[in-house]
Amino acid sequence: MDQTEEFEAERPRLIGIASRVLGDPVEAQDVVQQAWLRLHGTDAEIESLPAWLTTVTTRLCLDRLRARTPVPVDDLDPGETVGDPADEVALADTVGLALHVVLERLSPRERVAFVLHDSFGFEFPTIASVLDTTPAAARKLASRARAKVAQPAPEDRLADWEVVDAFMAAAKSGEFERLLRMLAPDATVSADDAAVLAGTPERIEGRDEVATFFNGSAQAALPVFVGDRPGTAWFHLGEARVVFDFTVAEGLVRAITFRAEPEVLSRVVRRDGGRTRG
Fold this sequence. Notes:
With about 280 residues, the protein is of the alpha+beta class. The chain is built from 12 helices and 8 strands.
């Protein structure tokens, strides 16, 4: 197998790492292509191509994370952790759909250490070489990140709009298990008379049923405010036609009501995140 064939064999794994670290599959593709260009341009002797590509890809991701972070928080000492949970069950694939939002609140080095260890099982000496630090420091970075993800401080809990947007992202990408984790056990879907006439279901009850309905759907829905509540809406020819009105409590979606009454639609405003769209 020549170098190009080896790279192509590694590409899916590298894209997986970059996607999880960056939270953006498109940007991940770009980073992996940069790694290919680095490989194509190097004259260095490479003992292990998979290891070399992992290091280069992850460092490229780290550079991009640092560019997003104006405050150099990842230069702080990781500090001690109480009851270092580095050897506990990995959280990265079990904390739910909101993980990508929480990851944005980690420092770049915390994020890399956490993702490499908890999602991909890399040992701390390997992570340390990527981060140019010691294995002990890499362990502490991952541990501190894990604590933030598992037990976020009150000020770090997700805003309602983040829950809504995370739920809709999972719906559009068909992530059924993550939809389930974002729904309350007794979650319901209902609709006003105008929405039923527009073709929405009148009522759906239960987490499994709601997740099944939304799984892979709502591709054209856009984020909105319904009064002061974050929701989404289906637009046609630039006008909101059906609103998805969310009830969120304690980070879970409790209810979604389809609304299409004119007085409701008249209060719909497009938004970007938690702000009204300018």
